[in-house]
Amino acid sequence: MPDVTAYGPGSAEPxxxxxxxxxxxxSDDEIYRRFVDALLDHRLxxxxxxxxxxxxxxxxxxRTRIRPVLARLAGEQLVxxxxxxxxxxxxxxxxxxxxxxEARRLIESRLLELFMEKSPTRCLADLTAxxxxxxxxxxxxxxxxxxxxxxxxxxxxxxxxxxxxxxRILSALVSRTSLVLMAWGPPQHVPAAGCGCHAHRALLDxxxxxxxxxxxxxxxxxxxEIEGSLHFCDVSEKPVRxxxxxxPR
Length: 249
Ligand SMILES: [Zn+2]
What we know:
Layout: H1 28-40, E1 49-50, H2 52-59, H3 63-75, E2 79-82, E3 86-89, H4 94-118, H5 121-139, H6 143-161, H7 164-184, H8 197-209, H9 212-228, H10 234-237, H11 242-245
Antiparallel strand pairs: 1-3, 2-3
Helix pairs in contact: 1-3, 2-3, 4-6, 4-7, 4-9, 5-6, 5-8, 6-7, 8-9
Residues 150, 153-154, 195, 199-200, 222 line the site of zinc ion.
């Protein structure tokens, strides 16, 4: 797998070449899941060109099998499809990034309420295990696992509520958050390498105590903090006046 995380202005355009898998029946769901995993692990950078032929070869399937997967990813705003220009990993702009966090604050507040109404002890234990595993991954320098486990914490809360619709929406938003952090996260993006175990532990403590208002505040603060770590380049914010820029001197 090539390192595609170095994509940026002036650098060579990355393209995604998935490792060639042994030929066997691979389901559309599995192809989709491997894409999403690569996004969540920060192995697949925003803007990466997705060449159908290469993907078809990598997965040992025909191009016609790749297209619906790309369409599904496009439906979740994880991929952009442009006529005659093909598919690319989406690169959320500043406004989209803010929308992602606004949507997460709304949805995760509700999911947290639903979770706490049920207060399933087993699920609290699962969340503890998730944080422990993330911490262990960080300690051994396994950044990819740490990123995945930090997202799992949020998705585990959603799954435990049994609210299929909100859980699905959140799943797509967590994947988009990964793209946002890759595009706009701080250079070393420690928050991008997960949310930080400390915030999750504080939240879990409040959940365990049944402190609903405190837990909701902590969730909102946690998402605010991640959003606050983003640095949007001036270039993307300021409209460039081309006529002024190229005015004869
Ligand atoms: Zn988090």
